[in-house]
Amino acid sequence: MTAAYVALEGGSVVEARCRAPGTSHGELVFTTAYTGYEESLTDPSYEEQVLTFAYPLIGNYGVREERFEDEDVHPSAVAARELTDDVAEWLESEGVPAVDKLDTRDLVGQIREGGAMKCGISAGPDASPEKAKEALADCPGMSDHTDIGAQVSVAHCETHYPDDEAAADEGPDVALVDCGAKGSIVESLLERGATVHVLPYDVTPGEVADLDPDVLFVSNGPGDPANFEAAQSLVDEFVGEVPLAGICLGQQIIARALGGTTEKMDFGHRGVNQPVRDLRTDKVVMTTQNHGYTVAEPGRLDVTQVNVNDDTPEGLESEDLDIITRQYHPEANPGPHDTLGFFDDVLELAGSERRTPVAAD
Q: Which of 44, 78, 223, 267 is most open to solvent, judged by the fewest CB atoms within 10 Å of its CB?
Protein backbone atom coordinates (compact mmCIF):
# COMPACT_ATOMS: atom_id res chain seq x y z
CA MET A 1 0.00 0.00 0.00
CA THR A 2 1.41 3.38 -1.02
CA ALA A 3 1.30 5.68 1.97
CA ALA A 4 -0.32 9.06 2.40
CA TYR A 5 -0.46 11.53 5.28
CA VAL A 6 -2.93 14.22 6.26
CA ALA A 7 -1.60 16.91 8.61
CA LEU A 8 -4.33 18.72 10.53
CA GLU A 9 -4.28 22.26 11.87
CA GLY A 10 -4.58 20.98 15.44
CA GLY A 11 -1.19 19.28 15.16
CA SER A 12 -2.09 15.65 14.49
CA VAL A 13 -1.11 13.64 11.41
CA VAL A 14 -3.41 10.94 10.04
CA GLU A 15 -1.99 8.07 8.00
CA ALA A 16 -3.95 6.94 4.93
CA ARG A 17 -3.60 5.15 1.60
CA CYS A 18 -2.58 7.03 -1.53
CA ARG A 19 -5.15 6.75 -4.33
CA ALA A 20 -3.87 9.65 -6.44
CA PRO A 21 -0.38 11.00 -5.72
CA GLY A 22 0.59 14.57 -4.96
CA THR A 23 1.09 17.21 -2.31
CA SER A 24 -1.59 19.78 -1.59
CA HIS A 25 -3.34 21.81 1.06
CA GLY A 26 -6.64 23.55 1.67
CA GLU A 27 -9.51 24.08 4.07
CA LEU A 28 -10.71 20.65 5.23
CA VAL A 29 -14.50 20.34 4.87
CA PHE A 30 -16.98 17.47 4.62
CA THR A 31 -20.13 16.63 2.71
CA THR A 32 -22.76 14.20 3.94
CA ALA A 33 -24.03 13.47 0.41
CA TYR A 34 -24.08 9.75 -0.39
CA THR A 35 -24.68 10.27 -4.12
CA GLY A 36 -23.60 12.98 -6.52
CA TYR A 37 -19.85 12.67 -6.00
CA GLU A 38 -19.23 13.61 -9.64
CA GLU A 39 -21.23 16.82 -9.22
CA SER A 40 -19.52 17.64 -5.92
CA LEU A 41 -16.02 17.08 -7.27
CA THR A 42 -16.68 19.38 -10.24
CA ASP A 43 -18.44 22.10 -8.22
CA PRO A 44 -16.35 25.32 -8.40
CA SER A 45 -17.47 26.21 -4.86
CA TYR A 46 -14.97 23.61 -3.56
CA GLU A 47 -11.98 25.54 -4.97
CA GLU A 48 -9.08 25.65 -2.46
CA GLN A 49 -10.77 23.09 -0.18
CA VAL A 50 -9.97 19.48 0.72
CA LEU A 51 -13.23 17.58 0.38
CA THR A 52 -13.93 14.74 2.81
CA PHE A 53 -16.83 12.40 2.04
CA ALA A 54 -18.73 11.29 5.13
CA TYR A 55 -20.38 8.45 3.21
CA PRO A 56 -17.98 5.46 3.33
CA LEU A 57 -17.96 4.28 -0.32
CA ILE A 58 -17.45 6.79 -3.12
CA GLY A 59 -17.58 5.73 -6.74
CA ASN A 60 -19.96 2.79 -6.80
CA TYR A 61 -21.75 3.94 -9.97
CA GLY A 62 -18.71 5.03 -11.95
CA VAL A 63 -17.75 8.37 -13.46
CA ARG A 64 -19.89 9.89 -16.20
CA GLU A 65 -18.91 13.20 -17.77
CA GLU A 66 -22.50 14.24 -18.45
CA ARG A 67 -22.96 14.65 -14.70
CA PHE A 68 -20.07 17.11 -14.34
CA GLU A 69 -20.85 20.66 -13.19
CA ASP A 70 -17.63 21.97 -14.73
CA GLU A 71 -14.85 20.52 -16.87
CA ASP A 72 -12.36 20.65 -13.97
CA VAL A 73 -12.15 18.94 -10.57
CA HIS A 74 -12.10 21.78 -8.05
CA PRO A 75 -11.17 20.46 -4.58
CA SER A 76 -7.43 20.73 -4.00
CA ALA A 77 -7.49 17.16 -2.61
CA VAL A 78 -10.00 14.43 -1.70
CA ALA A 79 -10.37 12.12 1.31
CA ALA A 80 -12.73 9.17 1.75
CA ARG A 81 -13.10 5.91 3.67
CA GLU A 82 -12.94 4.06 0.36
CA LEU A 83 -12.61 5.31 -3.23
CA THR A 84 -13.29 3.02 -6.16
CA ASP A 85 -10.69 2.65 -8.89
CA ASP A 86 -12.85 4.65 -11.32
CA VAL A 87 -12.84 7.74 -9.12
CA ALA A 88 -9.20 7.32 -8.07
CA GLU A 89 -8.06 7.08 -11.69
CA TRP A 90 -10.16 10.10 -12.65
CA LEU A 91 -8.67 12.21 -9.84
CA GLU A 92 -5.15 11.10 -10.73
CA SER A 93 -5.73 12.07 -14.37
CA GLU A 94 -6.80 15.51 -13.13
CA GLY A 95 -3.73 15.86 -10.91
CA VAL A 96 -5.80 15.99 -7.73
CA PRO A 97 -4.30 14.12 -4.74
CA ALA A 98 -6.68 11.60 -3.17
CA VAL A 99 -6.45 9.39 -0.09
CA ASP A 100 -8.61 6.72 1.52
CA LYS A 101 -8.43 4.01 4.19
CA LEU A 102 -8.67 6.58 6.96
CA ASP A 103 -11.30 7.04 9.66
CA THR A 104 -13.51 9.64 8.01
CA ARG A 105 -16.06 9.31 10.82
CA ASP A 106 -13.43 10.60 13.24
CA LEU A 107 -12.34 13.27 10.77
CA VAL A 108 -15.89 14.55 10.34
CA GLY A 109 -16.26 14.59 14.13
CA GLN A 110 -13.16 16.74 14.48
CA ILE A 111 -14.48 19.20 11.89
CA ARG A 112 -17.87 19.40 13.62
CA GLU A 113 -16.24 19.99 17.01
CA GLY A 114 -13.42 22.30 15.96
CA GLY A 115 -14.77 23.78 12.74
CA ALA A 116 -13.35 23.66 9.24
CA MET A 117 -9.58 23.60 9.51
CA LYS A 118 -6.49 23.91 7.37
CA CYS A 119 -4.77 20.71 6.35
CA GLY A 120 -1.84 19.50 4.29
CA ILE A 121 -1.70 16.26 2.28
CA SER A 122 1.28 14.26 1.09
CA ALA A 123 0.49 11.17 -0.99
CA GLY A 124 2.61 8.85 -3.12
CA PRO A 125 5.91 6.97 -3.08
CA ASP A 126 7.79 9.92 -1.55
CA ALA A 127 5.07 10.90 0.93
CA SER A 128 5.98 11.69 4.51
CA PRO A 129 4.45 13.31 7.58
CA GLU A 130 7.00 16.10 7.27
CA LYS A 131 5.87 16.94 3.72
CA ALA A 132 2.24 17.01 4.85
CA LYS A 133 3.17 19.39 7.68
CA GLU A 134 5.08 21.62 5.25
CA ALA A 135 2.04 21.75 2.99
CA LEU A 136 -0.11 22.67 5.99
CA ALA A 137 2.28 25.46 6.96
CA ASP A 138 1.89 26.99 3.50
CA CYS A 139 -1.92 26.85 3.56
CA PRO A 140 -3.69 30.26 3.58
CA GLY A 141 -7.09 30.82 5.17
CA MET A 142 -10.15 31.06 2.93
CA SER A 143 -10.45 34.82 3.47
CA ASP A 144 -6.85 35.20 2.26
CA HIS A 145 -7.81 34.07 -1.25
CA THR A 146 -8.59 37.63 -2.28
CA ASP A 147 -8.92 36.92 -6.01
CA ILE A 148 -10.33 33.40 -5.94
CA GLY A 149 -12.97 34.43 -8.47
CA ALA A 150 -10.28 34.56 -11.16
CA GLN A 151 -9.64 30.84 -10.62
CA VAL A 152 -13.22 29.76 -11.36
CA SER A 153 -14.80 32.39 -13.62
CA VAL A 154 -15.02 32.66 -17.39
CA ALA A 155 -12.49 35.06 -18.93
CA HIS A 156 -15.01 36.70 -21.28
CA CYS A 157 -18.73 36.70 -22.01
CA GLU A 158 -20.15 33.37 -23.18
CA THR A 159 -23.71 33.43 -24.48
CA HIS A 160 -25.91 30.32 -24.39
CA TYR A 161 -29.21 30.07 -26.28
CA PRO A 162 -32.16 27.75 -25.62
CA ASP A 163 -32.70 24.94 -28.13
CA ASP A 164 -36.08 26.38 -29.10
CA GLU A 165 -35.37 29.21 -31.58
CA ALA A 166 -38.69 30.87 -30.84
CA ALA A 167 -37.87 30.88 -27.14
CA ALA A 168 -34.49 32.43 -27.92
CA ASP A 169 -36.22 35.32 -29.72
CA GLU A 170 -39.00 35.84 -27.18
CA GLY A 171 -37.53 34.65 -23.88
CA PRO A 172 -35.78 36.78 -21.26
CA ASP A 173 -32.08 37.63 -21.30
CA VAL A 174 -30.22 36.71 -18.10
CA ALA A 175 -26.84 38.21 -17.26
CA LEU A 176 -25.21 35.56 -15.07
CA VAL A 177 -22.22 36.86 -13.11
CA ASP A 178 -19.94 33.83 -12.95
CA CYS A 179 -18.34 33.70 -9.51
CA GLY A 180 -17.96 29.93 -9.94
CA ALA A 181 -21.29 28.96 -11.46
CA LYS A 182 -22.39 25.35 -11.68
CA GLY A 183 -23.30 24.24 -15.18
CA SER A 184 -26.73 23.08 -14.08
CA ILE A 185 -27.69 26.66 -13.18
CA VAL A 186 -27.19 27.65 -16.80
CA GLU A 187 -29.08 24.54 -17.95
CA SER A 188 -32.00 25.29 -15.62
CA LEU A 189 -32.38 28.76 -17.15
CA LEU A 190 -32.00 27.51 -20.73
CA GLU A 191 -34.68 24.85 -20.17
CA ARG A 192 -37.09 27.66 -19.33
CA GLY A 193 -36.42 29.55 -22.54
CA ALA A 194 -33.92 32.12 -21.28
CA THR A 195 -30.85 33.29 -23.15
CA VAL A 196 -27.95 33.24 -20.68
CA HIS A 197 -24.95 35.54 -20.91
CA VAL A 198 -22.27 34.08 -18.61
CA LEU A 199 -20.07 37.00 -17.54
CA PRO A 200 -16.71 37.27 -15.75
CA TYR A 201 -16.87 37.73 -11.99
CA ASP A 202 -15.36 41.24 -12.39
CA VAL A 203 -17.56 42.38 -15.29
CA THR A 204 -18.06 46.14 -15.45
CA PRO A 205 -21.41 47.93 -15.21
CA GLY A 206 -20.93 49.23 -18.74
CA GLU A 207 -20.61 45.71 -20.13
CA VAL A 208 -23.79 44.66 -18.37
CA ALA A 209 -25.63 47.76 -19.61
CA ASP A 210 -24.63 46.92 -23.19
CA LEU A 211 -26.39 43.56 -22.82
CA ASP A 212 -29.58 45.18 -21.49
CA PRO A 213 -30.54 42.08 -19.44
CA ASP A 214 -33.97 41.33 -18.06
CA VAL A 215 -32.44 39.78 -14.93
CA LEU A 216 -29.03 40.15 -13.30
CA PHE A 217 -28.13 36.83 -11.64
CA VAL A 218 -25.16 36.36 -9.28
CA SER A 219 -23.94 32.76 -9.12
CA ASN A 220 -22.55 30.48 -6.47
CA GLY A 221 -18.80 30.31 -5.94
CA PRO A 222 -15.97 29.68 -3.49
CA GLY A 223 -14.43 31.72 -0.71
CA ASP A 224 -15.31 34.79 1.31
CA PRO A 225 -18.04 37.00 -0.22
CA ALA A 226 -16.15 40.05 1.04
CA ASN A 227 -13.52 39.34 -1.63
CA PHE A 228 -16.00 39.73 -4.51
CA GLU A 229 -16.03 43.51 -4.45
CA ALA A 230 -16.65 43.94 -8.19
CA ALA A 231 -19.79 41.81 -8.07
CA GLN A 232 -21.04 43.67 -5.02
CA SER A 233 -20.47 47.02 -6.75
CA LEU A 234 -22.33 45.69 -9.80
CA VAL A 235 -25.36 44.82 -7.68
CA ASP A 236 -25.23 48.26 -6.07
CA GLU A 237 -25.15 49.83 -9.55
CA PHE A 238 -28.27 48.10 -10.84
CA VAL A 239 -30.42 47.53 -7.75
CA GLY A 240 -33.90 48.90 -8.33
CA GLU A 241 -33.23 49.15 -12.08
CA VAL A 242 -32.83 45.48 -13.04
CA PRO A 243 -34.38 42.50 -11.22
CA LEU A 244 -31.75 40.65 -9.17
CA ALA A 245 -31.34 36.99 -8.31
CA GLY A 246 -28.63 34.99 -6.57
CA ILE A 247 -27.70 31.51 -5.43
CA CYS A 248 -25.37 30.64 -2.52
CA LEU A 249 -22.44 33.08 -2.72
CA GLY A 250 -24.74 35.19 -4.88
CA GLN A 251 -27.16 35.60 -1.98
CA GLN A 252 -24.33 36.72 0.26
CA ILE A 253 -23.01 39.24 -2.29
CA ILE A 254 -26.46 40.72 -2.89
CA ALA A 255 -27.12 40.97 0.85
CA ARG A 256 -23.82 42.82 1.39
CA ALA A 257 -24.68 45.24 -1.41
CA LEU A 258 -28.05 45.92 0.26
CA GLY A 259 -26.48 46.85 3.62
CA GLY A 260 -26.27 43.35 5.07
CA THR A 261 -23.36 41.47 6.60
CA THR A 262 -21.91 37.98 6.24
CA GLU A 263 -19.93 35.71 8.53
CA LYS A 264 -17.98 32.47 8.38
CA MET A 265 -19.74 29.39 9.73
CA ASP A 266 -18.07 26.82 11.97
CA PHE A 267 -18.24 24.00 9.44
CA GLY A 268 -20.85 25.13 6.92
CA HIS A 269 -23.64 23.24 5.17
CA ARG A 270 -22.59 20.63 2.61
CA GLY A 271 -24.91 17.81 1.63
CA VAL A 272 -28.18 16.96 -0.11
CA ASN A 273 -30.59 16.75 2.83
CA GLN A 274 -30.56 20.19 4.45
CA PRO A 275 -34.11 21.07 5.63
CA VAL A 276 -35.35 24.59 4.83
CA ARG A 277 -38.58 26.15 6.13
CA ASP A 278 -40.52 28.81 4.26
CA LEU A 279 -41.65 31.41 6.80
CA ARG A 280 -44.74 32.34 4.79
CA THR A 281 -46.15 28.85 4.19
CA ASP A 282 -44.42 26.95 7.01
CA LYS A 283 -43.58 24.29 4.44
CA VAL A 284 -40.28 22.41 4.79
CA VAL A 285 -38.28 21.31 1.74
CA MET A 286 -35.06 19.33 1.44
CA THR A 287 -32.18 21.07 -0.29
CA THR A 288 -28.68 20.66 -1.69
CA GLN A 289 -26.12 22.96 -0.08
CA ASN A 290 -22.42 23.77 -0.24
CA HIS A 291 -21.29 26.88 1.60
CA GLY A 292 -19.05 27.93 4.48
CA TYR A 293 -20.30 31.52 4.83
CA THR A 294 -23.77 32.82 5.58
CA VAL A 295 -25.74 36.05 5.77
CA ALA A 296 -25.65 37.39 9.33
CA GLU A 297 -27.82 40.48 8.79
CA PRO A 298 -29.98 40.81 5.66
CA GLY A 299 -29.86 44.61 5.35
CA ARG A 300 -32.74 45.91 3.24
CA LEU A 301 -33.90 42.40 2.32
CA ASP A 302 -36.56 40.28 4.00
CA VAL A 303 -35.72 36.79 5.28
CA THR A 304 -38.30 34.45 3.74
CA GLN A 305 -36.71 31.04 4.40
CA VAL A 306 -34.51 29.64 7.17
CA ASN A 307 -32.50 26.50 7.83
CA VAL A 308 -34.39 24.23 10.21
CA ASN A 309 -31.21 23.14 11.99
CA ASP A 310 -29.64 26.51 12.82
CA ASP A 311 -32.05 29.27 11.63
CA THR A 312 -29.53 30.77 9.19
CA PRO A 313 -31.16 32.65 6.29
CA GLU A 314 -31.88 30.42 3.28
CA GLY A 315 -34.02 32.82 1.26
CA LEU A 316 -33.99 36.61 0.93
CA GLU A 317 -36.40 38.75 -1.07
CA SER A 318 -37.53 42.30 -1.74
CA GLU A 319 -40.79 42.76 -3.60
CA ASP A 320 -40.20 46.49 -4.05
CA LEU A 321 -36.73 45.99 -5.55
CA ASP A 322 -37.51 42.79 -7.51
CA ILE A 323 -34.89 40.68 -5.70
CA ILE A 324 -35.01 36.96 -4.93
CA THR A 325 -32.09 34.88 -3.62
CA ARG A 326 -31.47 31.42 -2.18
CA GLN A 327 -28.59 30.14 -0.06
CA TYR A 328 -29.14 26.54 -1.18
CA HIS A 329 -28.85 25.12 -4.72
CA PRO A 330 -32.31 24.95 -6.34
CA GLU A 331 -30.84 23.33 -9.47
CA ALA A 332 -30.56 20.16 -7.36
CA ASN A 333 -27.42 18.61 -8.87
CA PRO A 334 -26.96 16.51 -6.85
CA GLY A 335 -29.99 16.38 -4.64
CA PRO A 336 -33.80 16.53 -4.35
CA HIS A 337 -35.94 18.49 -6.82
CA ASP A 338 -38.05 20.22 -4.18
CA THR A 339 -36.95 23.74 -5.13
CA LEU A 340 -36.64 23.79 -8.93
CA GLY A 341 -39.49 26.30 -9.04
CA PHE A 342 -37.04 28.99 -7.96
CA PHE A 343 -35.96 29.42 -11.58
CA ASP A 344 -39.54 30.02 -12.66
CA ASP A 345 -39.80 32.68 -9.95
CA VAL A 346 -36.57 34.30 -11.19
CA LEU A 347 -37.76 34.52 -14.78
CA GLU A 348 -41.11 35.90 -13.66
CA LEU A 349 -39.17 38.92 -12.40
CA ALA A 350 -38.50 39.83 -16.04
CA GLY A 351 -42.22 40.29 -16.63
CA SER A 352 -44.14 39.88 -19.84
CA GLU A 353 -42.89 43.20 -21.30
CA ARG A 354 -39.24 44.14 -21.78
CA ARG A 355 -38.08 47.03 -19.66
CA THR A 356 -36.58 50.24 -21.00
CA PRO A 357 -32.85 49.79 -21.63
CA VAL A 358 -30.64 50.02 -18.56
CA ALA A 359 -27.87 52.58 -18.37
CA ALA A 360 -24.67 52.50 -16.37
CA ASP A 361 -23.42 55.68 -14.73
A: 267
